[in-house]
Amino acid sequence: MLLQLLILLHLLNNFIMKKSGLIFIMLVGSLLLTTNAWTQDWTAGDNVTLTVQDFCLIETNYAPVALTLITSTAGAAAASTSNSDLFVKISSIVPGGTNREITARISSGSVPTGTALTLVSAPCTTTNSGGILGTPVATPITLSAIDQDLVIGIATCYTGTGYNDGYQMTYTWGPDSPSTNYGLIESNTYNIIVVFTITAHDGN
Asked: Which CATH fold topology does 55-65+81-179+188-203 show?
């Protein structure tokens, strides 16, 4: 009889322990589900419009350019003279697949008869620049009242803003044909204005 009672108490104890474990597991599961509901992420959206403006800006460092025809040798023709103090700076953003050019022309005054004034650009300085800076035209242009290309293939880029940043321009002035029209040159001071233009993309 005592042995049967002990067995019955043992079975009852096991049953209570199992039930408690089940209840504990159910409580933990419920807590986890509740916690998950509390930490669930909620999102919202908004439309953001980003615009890159098509633009181009051009400036120079305003370096004075003064050229003088002279010779120090008796019997010699006046020699050509050059100046490379002027730098042209630009900022440009273009639509994809398009480009711009820098051109130059004389807008006021004229080059003295018997002489020619040429201009050529060096590649853009690289210290403070970036982007697609284009390629200078290799042959110097003879300045006139008509726009002529100095730098071609310019796309989205910037040249830097320092005094010596940008495209360095070299002016050269001298007799255009000493053997035939040197006698047309007259002593005087001549003032001209040269205008630099950056075109709209692809000339539009």
From this structure: Immunoglobulin-like (2.60.40)
